[in-house]
Design a protein that fits this description.
Order of helices and strands: EEEHEHEHHEHEHEHEHEHEHEH
Number of strands: 12
Bound molecules: NADP nicotinamide-adenine-dinucleotide phosphate
Number of helices: 11
Distance between the termini: 27 Å
Shape: elongated
Helix content: 25-40%
Radius of gyration: 21 Å
């Protein structure tokens, strides 16, 4: 028996025919609206909103298999009310995203982009003892706002760099503390005491706008903000102002509130490294993300429990 499923067209090259057995697929491009019909599963990218209206238009839907670990593009309450399962791709993208977070930490701390620009513009006049002086990492403090899978993976990478780690999370992480010497603090202390603040909480009603004018003002002068989680954790105009005024040392961002649009003031702000949401963008990880999303669909359609549900 074949099942009618909607799958993001952008995943076509990442999936093998064997993974798609028994599926009657409608490939849905990111710029196409979600259709109405009798599909039983949808595999959307994080750019597709799946809310009450979409779920109403898909009355036979049994599963939304999101191709991301974050699932703020899905109305969970509406899905649960309709008995639609929601899955994510937790676990498979942790290491790739932690690596990218470190790319941003190093790029901001050591003025990598300014250096590249100087060379490319042909304006480098030679070694100078005071040129592009950055932040020495050894002995500084890294603050992880959110210490789940990715936050902890970022923290583990901090040890060889000689950083002290503070973290804020809803629950204590004793194994992580033992492994890294990290100390759990509240978010206020974390912001006030760390040289590099890295965001790893999901986007939820409680965390949206957690970095705003007031919390930015509480950060140490010259501190660096890194965000590889979700754009709407940060009020972008307030961040741009903190950079313009020189209060913040730098910002390294992979995600934005209204992707792919970036607030014009943030785009123009000094000392930023702005990436196009490539946290999980490695060959291996993107294949694994597509595979686990489709494996969730296959499991549910064959009457088995989903592999990575976001609620149970
Ligand atoms: P995770 O394992 O669920 O970790 C989330 C962490 O946030 C946990 O420590 C959790 O605390 C904490 N948390 C949640 N709500 C909080 C709140 N209101 N206040 C304080 N802490 C809170 O998630 P993950 O796999 O590390 O992924 C984190 C996020 O990264 C995802 O939600 C996604 O948006 C983003 N992401 C982005 C990319 C990219 O391409 N840039 C790639 C992958 C993921 P507890 O442990 O106590 O529950």
């Amino acid at each position: 028996m074949t099942h009618r499923v909607l799958i993001a067209a952008e995943l076509k090259n990442l999936l093998r025919p064997s993974q798609l057995a028994d599926l009657d697929i409608t490939w849905l491009a990111a710029d196409q609206p979600t259709p109405k019909g009798d599909w039983v599963a949808i595999v959307p990218l994080l750019s597709r909103w799946v809310g009450g209206t979409e779920l109403k238009h898909l009355p036979n839907l049994r599963i939304v298999a999101n191709v991301a670990v974050g699932y703020n593009n899905i109305d969970l309450v509406a899905a649960e009310m309709r008995n639609v399962l929601v899955t994510n791709t937790s676990g498979v993208l942790t290491e790739a995203t932690a690596d990218l977070t470190w790319a941003l930490i190093l790029a901001t701390a050591r003025h990598l982009i300014e250096g590249v620009d100087l060379v490319r513009r042909g304006q480098w006049t030679g070694w100078h003892p005071e040129q592009l002086l950055g932040l020495e990492l050894r002995g500084r403090t890294l603050g992880l706002l959110g210490a789940g899978r990715i936050g902890q993976a970022v923290g583990r990478r901090a040890l060889p760099f000689g950083l002290r780690i503070l973290y804020a999370a809803r629950t204590a992480k004793p194994d992580f503390e033992r492994e890294t010497g990290a100390t759990r603090v509240d978010a206020t202390r974390l912001l006030a005491e760390t040289d590099i603040v890295s965001l790893h909480v999901p986007s939820t009603p409680e965390t949206k706008g957690i970095i705003n004018g007031e919390t930015l003002a509480r950060m140490k002068p010259g501190a660096i903000l890194i965000n590889t989680s979700r754009g709407d954790l940060v009020r972008e105009e307030a961040l741009a102002m903190a950079l313009e005024l020189g209060h913040l040392g730098a910002a390294g961002l992979d995600v934005y509130t209204d992707e792919p649009t970036i607030h014009p003031r943030l785009l123009a702000a000094p000392r930023t490294v702005l990436l196009p949401h490539i946290g999980s963008a490695t060959e291996e990880t993107r294949h694994k993300m597509a595979a686990i999303a489709v494996a969730n669909v296959q499991a549910v359609l064959s009457g088995k429990p989903p592999l990575t549900p976001v609620y149970s």
